[in-house]
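lol forgot to send this yesterday, sorry. struct tokens for the thing we talked abt
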């Protein structure tokens, strides 16, 4: 089953961390940061699977500029500006499925090479990310 496979992967990673003396840390389940940290971890692995809600009202896959819609089975109660998706589904429309709400700052911080603005196609997402990078520089933060 999927849960058994996930548990197996977790055990393997745990043994690797022990071998290299890397401390395992988890956010307390009651912490307000618990779910945010999970979403940030997902961004670290799925940073290339992001869509942005454009002013026109449709989602655009970042960097591909492909128009998509949230799959009707999604459980979000709103239309977030930025979503990370797990699956692209092509039917009579282009859908993204298994989505979660993310913050664009995470993209710039955690995948700064991929989100380098010099290699970015023109779109609303690029303009928003450029504003974020500029704001981070003014605050003295580094995207790297």
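and heres what i got for the seq, position by position
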């Amino acid at each position: 089953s999927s849960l058994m496979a996930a548990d197996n992967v977790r055990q393997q990673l745990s043994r690797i961390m022990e071998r290299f003396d890397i401390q395992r840390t988890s956010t307390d389940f009651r912490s307000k940061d618990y779910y945010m940290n999970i979403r940030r971890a997902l961004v670290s692995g799925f940073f290339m699977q992001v869509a942005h809600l454009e002013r026109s009202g449709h989602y655009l896959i970042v960097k591909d500029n492909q128009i998509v819609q949230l799959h009707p089975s999604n459980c979000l109660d709103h239309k977030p500006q930025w979503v990370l998706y797990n699956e692209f589904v092509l039917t009579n429309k282009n859908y993204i499925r298994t989505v979660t709400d993310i913050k664009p700052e995470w993209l710039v911080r955690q995948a700064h090479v991929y989100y380098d603005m010099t290699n970015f196609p023109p779109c609303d997402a690029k303009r928003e990310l450029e504003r974020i990078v500029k704001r981070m520089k003014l605050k003295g933060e580094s995207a790297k």
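DSSP finds four helices and five strands in the chain. anyway ping me if u want another try
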